[in-house]
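#dry-run=false #mode=assembly
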Amino acid sequence: MSLEFHNVSHSYGTTRVLQDISFKAAEGEILCLLGPSGGGKSTLLRLAAGLEPVQSGHLSLDGELLAQPGIQPPPEQRPIGLVFQDHVLFPHLTVTSNLAFGLAGTNKLAQRDRVAQLLEQMDLAGLDERYPHELSGGQQQRVALARAMAPKPRVLLLDEPFASVDSTLRRQLRRTTRAALKASGTTAIVVTHDPDEAMQLADSIAVMAQGKIAQHDSPSAIWQQPTTLQVALLFGDATAIVSHSRGGTVFSAFGEMASTLPDGPTTLAIRPQGIELHQPDSDHPATAEVTDLRLLGHRWQLRLTALPSETAHQDLPTISATTDSPESFALGTQVRTTLNAKDCFLFSNTN
Ligand code: ADP
Ligand code: MG
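#status=ok
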């Protein structure tokens, strides 16, 4: 079932938190809503779940009106499930009873089958007779997810569901969750402020900033063609530096690349992979100095500070680069840099 927001705006008192939001989670799609804390992500979910009245705009399910000002069906009349960050399991019920709770009204045999299926899907086998206090945080969160999925909601809304789980477990939990959502064909909107989480979970990512959707695209398009500087800076450890476009070329402290922007000041977002390192020679002078060198596990990260030059003289920018051969780029070494356009993103300063 698809869920669509049409021109939704929302204010708390006089503070506008959502501004003319339109986007669609398609049937069976996992959509990640990514944005900074306080950006209005939870408010969007609460509007869809019916926990907050729609003030302006409307929502639809499979193209049919779900809610608008004056028409606000209560949560229990919506085919929508909701999971919060703080899993709220019934403490006095076992895992099995917690899962069965959402299935009240169906016959016992069907309940037992469904619970067994959920235990298996969410990696909870063997924990069925435990009480919540006998489970780890990650296990509790899996039970909470399984319970929300038990009645097979057509749409599931998950608000930072893994936020209280440590990072190793979180990765595993994302995989389990994605697999379970895909197996059931549930349409899901997952709120996160973690770009890696969005990349790992989502079929599409909607990046929110200042109460608006900055970009809604596939993970690969978000990664390869960010349409705003803000989106570019969220993914892949990019740094923004000042640059200048002139006659189809953009000039920066770390090198040049082709530009389709009109002449004038521009901003260049550069990922570590966007910097290529070379030994300077008499024709190609050094552009930067290595000011830090850290092992990140699989690769070395260099910090490069630009050398004073025609294009960089006031605030000398510092940027990250990456290398497999730290011996060539020891601390204090002067290097020549060029830009690899695939990991550099150029934005005009005038919009
Ligand atoms: P996010 O989930 O992206 O962190 P929220 O939707 O929770 O953002 O909140 C957006 C903004 O609205 C925040 O500034 C928050 O303080 C404010 N806000 C959220 N809920 C309420 C409320 N019930 N009353 C007043 N302000 C609220
Ligand atoms: Mg929130």
